[in-house]
What does this fold into?
Amino acid sequence: MLSARADTILKSIVEQYIARAVPVSSQGIFGSCKLGVSSATIRNEMALLEEEGYITRSHSSAGSIPSDRGYRYYVESLDVIELPLPEQHLVGHLFYQVEKELEEWLSLAAALVAQLAHNMAVVTTPKSVDCQFKHLELVTLGGSLALGIVILCGGRVRQQLMTFDRAMSQPELTAMANKLNNAYSNLTSSQIAAKALELSPIEKRLTDFVVNIMQTEDRQEYEEPYLDGLRFVVNQPEFADTSRMAALMELVEHRKLVKTIISERMVRHGVQVTIGKENKAEVIRDYSVVIGWYGLPGEAAGTIGVIGPTRMPYARTISAVGFLSSVLSRLVAELYGKDTPSG
It folds into this structure.
């Protein structure tokens, strides 16, 4: 635990460094904190903060830069923070204007979070451990050829050409699709495969078609995420040396960013902050990651996050990620026809 004065000084250092990216001097603390003590006393407090690993300085008379431990202390001391109401209303208005399609929502969410946090936003498509069947459509393409369209809970759509042993009319295809839709609604692939149902050979083949698509979906990892705001990271003074950006660019280009920043051990609720060397992957230890989960617990969940330098506006970023997580959760609940999740 830090003393009240050390706490005030450390928070001032963090906030000034976040705002200006310039090491903070004792005079800068003296002018901003109004602690009623001399600059010498402030310098002594800063020396103790350095000894305890909360700040770093290149030499004794240099300005101070927060360390990962200093940022962690600052983040843990933040009160409950929310996005300002005018911005909440603006976000709600923008979502109201876009089409009611999952892809549109996720793309907009990435753009908004990037703009609000002034760092790179990453949004993944909601995914369940075991996807659930919602609807099958069969569209004749003439003769024995048809298009099979499988719609999964959460709005994901998968389609595939199918060839039958004989010509199939549209009414025949529609009747079979309706039968399977009534029988398999909201079931997982394993539940569909285990369901005892009297089926014709063609209906059995259609069931296998649905199960195979769902099993493939269950095996897949995160789809290509929605990214926005890389320009904000590139323009940060920490990355004027382009070699520091190379690792992040490589992760983006090789589609490994999501696997790198999201750990399977993460708790799937709330907003979580990983700072600098707290990241397990060495390639992003110059960065901080703020991750929020959205969706329906136990049914479908996605992530919305921000990655940027450790000199990140944490309060602003956490509030933006938290609010957009709640917005996306409500929208996913609508897709599933469920009540809005609490929290």
Summary: The chain has a mean pLDDT of 88. DSSP finds 13 helices and ten strands in the chain. Strands lie at 55-56, 65-66, 120-123, 133-140, 145-152, 157-163, 226-228, 271-275, 287-296, 300-309.
